[in-house]
Amino acid sequence: MGRFAGKLVVITGAGRGLGAALAISLAELEARLVLCGRNEQALADIASIIVERTGNAPTCIAVDLADVGSVTEASRAILASNPTVDVLVNNGAMWLEGRKEPYTADEVAGVVNAAITGTFLFTQALLPGLERSESPDIVTIGSISGLLNASLHTVSVPFYAAKHGQSAIAEGLKQMLVGSPVRSITIHPPYLDDILPTDPEWEEVAHRAKGGRGTNRDVVEAVIFALTRPRHVTLSMVLDTDNGGQYAAP
């Protein structure tokens, strides 16, 4: 895992859940981190955990992916301090569950703008930094909901549509970046149990029997696996936890 040592990794949605699990895990593999998210206190809390476990302090950048101005400001701040970006993990997204009551305009705009507009603009802005890297990667954390003919299950139509759009961005980037050293990798997880490397369950789930429910650790390991493949290999991975096909996930 020495190939992560010293690499600059930018993670959106890093203040909680899967983003936080990725941040802690990659920090333990000696990556240098920029943690991005809407909640500055949540980012600071994860940064404190990383300092305690590794001794290295990540950079925290507040960004609201649903706000174009915030995306522009954050991307400029990242490149001003880190001209070279090795890995961008597009994990940030807004969850909106299915319900009978109508959704507000703000709810719909927030979900769609964060997953599509904000994700694309953030990636586009950081591309010059990625192109300076010797091994640049863009990792998009999609969803089973974003796959063709996926069941709506319990997600809202705006979230379902947003994840389809995010999946299209990842595929479009893959095609756009043909001939360049930048890879576009996609991971599509199902519903997940939300655990962190600081939780006792993190070690316990490594020994689950077939059919066990997915966790953040599964996605972290999938991301690390994808990033450590030879440079000529680009992956799009669907995580199947053998739960009867009832998939839909943030």
From TrEMBL:
Pfam families, sorted: adh_short
Secretion signal span: none
Gene Ontology annotations for the cellular component aspect, listed alphabetically: membrane
Sorted UniProt keywords: Oxidoreductase
Molecular function in Gene Ontology: oxidoreductase activity
InterPro entries per UniProt: NAD(P)-bd_dom_sf, SDR_fam
UniProt family annotation: Belongs to the short-chain dehydrogenases/reductases (SDR) family.
PANTHER family (alphabetical): DEHYDROGENASE/REDUCTASE SDR FAMILY MEMBER 7B, DEHYDROGENASE_REDUCTASE SDR FAMILY MEMBER 7B
Protein name: Short-chain dehydrogenase
